[in-house]
Amino acid sequence: MTHNLLRENGSKTGSAKTILEFDVTVNRPEFSLHAAGSFGSGITAVFGPSGAGKSTLLGAIAGSVKPSKGHISLFGRTLVSTSEGVTLPPERRRVGFVYQDATLFPHMTVEKNIAYGHRLTPKDQRRLDPSDLAELLAISGLLQRRPSELSGGEKQRVALARTLATSPELLLLDEPMSALDIRLRGIVLGYLKLIHRELAMPMVYVSHSISEVLAIADEAMVLEQGRVKTFGTARRLLNQVSTAEGDAGDLTVDNILEGQIVESHTSGEPGKVRIGRAELTAPTGHREFGEKVVVAIGSQEIIVATERPVGISARNVLAGTVASLDGDGPRRMVAVDCGAELMAEVTASAINELDIQPGKDVYLVIKSSSITVMDAFRD
After folding, report:
1. pLDDT of residue 202
2. Which of 272, 115, 275 is nearest to 186 (CA)?
3. Are 307 and 220 a contacting pair, CB within 8 Å?
4. What is the pTM (predicted TM-score) of this model?
5. Given 210, 225, 249, which residue is the final one in a domain?
6. What CATH code is carried by the domain that includes residue 121?
7. More confident residue, 117 or 180
8. What is the CATH number of the domain that holds 298?
């Protein structure tokens, strides 16, 4: 398939090489953005509450927002340099943009939607074939349908395919999950990981959902009121939970993990799902043995114990070791390695009373009814 050709042409997934550099200022009467950074070839999140400047930064990179001053370069190509008078138009930037809503052409079939951008791309820049993208995103069976006949998750995958058909060097995603429920979010997150892995496609992922960022991003930049607050590994976002303003202060964290069915029952009884080396008893529905799934567990739904509990109704008691403590407010995140890394929300007072610290052996208690098992993408 085309994604294999992409690797042969020299792109490597997971490279630490810097591909995007920027230092831009956008001045508006009611808002100003000043952001500088260097992003690598992985998946980088831009995180923050509403009004922080996330979409403005993406617009400056894509070309829909004109910086007041500054520069932007992609793979060493100058996209913007106000000092040199350079501002490339959007169509020459080789940047793909996926918006909050899958804004497909309603009068076109899925096939024509995907082919639209491909036809506008110069032949010498075409690296990805529409039919290969349809196969990769499991939408080959939808090609003759119109957008009105698609589910929300299908629309978003078609929007991804249409954007990728322009063969961008960088994919920008602006809150792509905001219109989807948690089941569909798990599916689309899986496809985004697949795109990055198979197409070696660097991404900038804008969100105000900590759970999404932790599930998909390698690194994260935190914006507040138009300024960069911090930049580093995605885990560092957890230190913002108790201090971030606006929407972010009320967010909870979901563990969103890829798994596989290892036991199922046609009677409707809970089955078992393996995540990493851990196995969870969970409502698997009528899914079959070996089927890939996405598992979501709220951090507030996990109890941390320093001794193995007995005589309880919860079906899951996992032994593990505390990997880290994150956050500095009244509620903190405890990351525990139990064969897979899970995060549990624990009050600061409980952490002190139980003497929870990195390296300590603990047990995680999880009710099976607290685990959501969702369909995964198809490889």
Report:
1. 94
2. 275
3. no
4. 0.73
5. 249
6. 3.40.50.300
7. 117
8. 2.40.50.100
Distances in Å between the Cα of 214 and the Cα atoms of 47, 95, 208, 294 are: 11, 24, 11, 14
For the chain, the domain total comes to: 2
Q: Indicate whether 249 pLDDT > 50.
A: no
Residue where a domain terminates, one of 205, 223, 249: 249
Long-range CB pairs of 322-325 (<8 Å, 24+ gap) are 322/356, 322/357, 322/358, 322/359, 322/360, 322/361, 322/362, 323/358, 324/235, 324/358, 325/351, 325/356, 325/357, 325/358
User: Is residue 164 located within the same domain as residue 44?
Assistant: yes
The range of the structural domain enclosing residue 296 comes to 256-375
Residues 6+ apart with CB under 8 A from 273: 259, 260, 261, 262, 279, 280, 282, 284, 293, 295, 371, 373
Strand order across the 86-87 sheet: 86-87, 77-81, 69-74, 18-28, 31-40, 227-233, 219-224, 43-47, 203-207, 170-174, 95-98
Residue 77 sits in the same domain as residue 208: yes
> Whole-angstrom Cα distance, residue 45 to residue 208?
10
